[in-house]
Amino acid sequence: MAHFEKLLLIGCGNMGGAMLAGWLAAGEDPARFEVLDPALGAAPEGVKLHREPPADSDHDCVLLGFKPQQLGELGPRFQDLTGPGVTVFSLLAGIDLAMLRAAFPGADAHVRVMPNLAARIGKSPIIMAQSGLEPAASDAALALYDKLGTALWLDDESKFNLATALAGSGPGFVYRFIDALAAAGHQLGLDQGLADDLAMAMVEGASALAAAADISPGELADRVASPGGMTREGLNVLDADNALINLLNETLQATAAKGDELAANATASR
Ligand SMILES: NC(=O)C1=CN([C@@H]2O[C@H](COP(=O)(O)OP(=O)(O)OC[C@H]3O[C@@H](n4cnc5c(N)ncnc54)[C@H](OP(=O)(O)O)[C@@H]3O)[C@@H](O)[C@H]2O)C=CC1
Ligand SMILES: O=C(O)[C@@H]1CCC=N1
């Protein structure tokens, strides 16, 4: 039996919209998708848009793309859309499988999915954890999300918020880094436009090289630092007292902790 032939995306904002665009760009048939979003301007061509929960949809899975803070309010409204024969895929940060099972008890299976915005261009890591999928359905789920980048099962769900902080929120931190690098270049004397262009082009090339290289980013950093040269002086600033590592440690901790808080608040509001 085929799995996940018709996906109903509930909430097509920044992340859901990026995923839908990514699937369509990867050549998926738009007829495979429907969207439920009360105020969305328009769905992509060929994708049916519902303003109200549809009574006649033949979907076999939903993808929850609204905010975790809305679970208590919206969960009860979508019981009819998540009955037997339907798998619930959820993007809701912090909301764990036990909470998804409690919110959508009629569904066949429940899957946490954590992509990032690069799903739009097929370059997102996608972390997944599941409950209730048979092996063939599990393979089909992985294949569906693999079209948006690289999908993988995280065996230990207790690490999901931490993995989310690194890979789901991560682009936000990288964009902040690019901005900060450009701002520093400008403050020290480069024209703003030149600093912006150099920072962007540098990060694009450096990350492509790191992805293609057969040595680690740490070794690559050492290759950039010519003996007795300039780069080592800058690396010394980042490395002093583990400054950068400590900063990122704190960044990931704060981000992951917010996932626990979102879950606790959603539980309290049930
Ligand atoms: N942004 C990101 O990079 C990532 C986000 N996520 C997760 O994705 C989810 C969405 O986040 P994000 O895309 O950033 O947020 P957005 O606010 O951009 O998207 C949420 C969407 O849900 C819609 N919505 C609101 N109420 C309803 C309703 N009753 N029925 C259907 N749709 C509704 C919103 O419409 P309206 O705007 O009109 O209220 C909006 O289009 C969250 O759970 C988040 O944790 C996961 C990974 C990365
Ligand atoms: O900020 C958030 O909560 C979501 C989850 C990961 C990225 N964005």
Structure summarized in a few sentences:
It is found in: Cytoplasm. This protein has 270 residues and is of the alpha/beta class.
Key terms for this structure?
270 residues; alpha/beta; Rossmann fold; ProC C-terminal domain-like fold; 2 domains; 10 helices; 8 strands; 47% helix; 14% strand; elongated; binds NADPH dihydro-nicotinamide-adenine-dinucleotide phosphate; binds (2S)-3,4-dihydro-2H-pyrrole-2-carboxylic acid
List the helices and strands and how they pair.
Layout: E1 7-10, H1 14-25, E2 33-36, E3 48-50, E4 61-64, H2 71-74, E5 87-90, H3 97-103, E6 109-114, E7 124-131, H4 135-146, E8 149-153, H5 160-168, H6 170-187, H7 192-212, H8 217-224, H9 231-239, H10 243-268
Parallel strand pairs: 1-2, 1-4, 2-3, 4-5, 5-6, 7-8
Antiparallel strand pairs: 6-7
Bound molecules: NADPH dihydro-nicotinamide-adenine-dinucleotide phosphate and (2S)-3,4-dihydro-2H-pyrrole-2-carboxylic acid.
Detailed description of the structure:
- The chain is of the alpha/beta class and 270 residues long.
- The chain folds into two domains: 7-160, Rossmann fold; 170-260, ProC C-terminal domain-like fold (Orthogonal Bundle).
- The protein has ten helices and eight strands.
- It has an eight-stranded mixed beta sheet, sandwiched between helices.
- The model has no long low-confidence stretch (mean pLDDT 97).
- NADPH dihydro-nicotinamide-adenine-dinucleotide phosphate binds next to helix 1.
In whole angstroms, the N-to-C terminal distance is 35 Å
Task: Determine and state the CATH class of the largest domain.
Answer: Alpha Beta
- State the major sheet: 8 strands, mixed
Domain module tally:
2
Q: What is the overall shape?
A: elongated
Radius of gyration: 21 Å
Overall SS class: alpha/beta
